[in-house]
Amino acid sequence: MGCCNRECGLIAGAVFGALLAVLGGVLIPVGNSIIEGTVHKEAVIMDGTTAYDNWVSTGASVYRQFWFFDVQNPVEIVENGATPVVKERGPYTYKTRYLPKENITFSNFTATFLLPLGAIFEPSMSVGPEEDKVTTLNLIVAGAYSLIPPPLHGMVERMIQSSNSSLFQRRSVKELLWGYHDPMMNTTTGLFSPYNGTYDGPYTVFTGKYDISKVGKIQKWRGKESLTFWDDPYCNMINGTDASSFAPFVDKKKPLYFFSSDICRSVSASYEESLHLRGIEVYRFTLQPNTLAAPNINPDNQCYCRDSKVTKNCTMAGVLDISSCQDNKPIYISLPHFLYGSPSLRESVLGLNPSQAHHDTFMDVEPITGFTLRFAKRIQVNMMYGPSKVITVLKKVKDYTIFPIVWLNETAALDEETANMFKKELFSRVEMLEMVQLSLLGIGVSMFVLCFSMYCVVRSRRNSGKIV
Is residue 90 over pLDDT 70? Predict the structure, then answer.
């Protein structure tokens, strides 16, 4: 009788363990479904969700750091045709994107808004005051050379002489960034002028209400579903989000697409590695080296090549002519220090030292929510000048030069308070559910194996007559 009770107890224990294991196994898909449903609900851009609160406000502080290329030999360049030598100065840091979205309107599945622009100088994060002066390319002289056809360069020469201008100028950081009065054209000019008090957009994005895979994706920019800057439907496509967030449950095997109005085009980033940011796992996505590759390397870039004369029949890598979306300002965009660019770019201007660690663009994306928790968008602003038989300050120039003026790092990162909120509101619940699932599964399997093994031993001994 005692053996029967022992055997029955072991069988009961094995059955109970099996039930616990089954319960734990069942909870895994059920729990995952609960997590997925909760994340999908909170990721929709609509009043009352976590995504909406982060989307409307500015979130983490965004800063733009500027490094200028200070020309060391301006006289030698103009008088002797010397190769320009530059020295990097910076950072000069401004707080930007501190204003919440404006004019927000919703339809059934989209939200439209304006993004106000502003910049506040941050002395504590800068190497000096914004009144610091640097020697750099004369924006108006270079612009006139690019925009006015050679038969009219005599007019440009007269304007340069009458205003006592030259190929290079010495201006303050504040003037170069936000505007100054130029005597040659009797107008206000600057790299980002006008900026304060202006807007980017309007943008129209999908809210994800009916299709969470589209959340944050841009449907329209400035009221149009495609761009008009490029002479090709492919290059004019608006793909992805604004990079502040992506659809939940990010697949690191797939690239992330985003549109940047700063460079007037859409780009993609690919997974590089997994990191931890304040105790939260993130996927780092980076721009690929072929993003600005020459068309003979990346045929998709053929429609971005606009001036074959300057880009050596579109064989030059690393620069993008965005004049068509900058009110015809002859601006060329690149990565800082011409990272991944053709060697000729760095040979024509000395003092450049590209570094992937310091000059590449990246995003650290939390894979469950799709939120970008840290990013660094790095862009270099360049202008072009070349030889002229008429314009005195360009007579010694031997070839076309894409000249670096400034590079910027727009960056933001998750703060401690927001990180703690993330871990408390989302990850702690996920971890608790996973712990319950694994505990039930582990205890159940252990009980089943132990009880079943002991039952087999007891049964074997009884059958052999060793236990009475």
Answer: yes
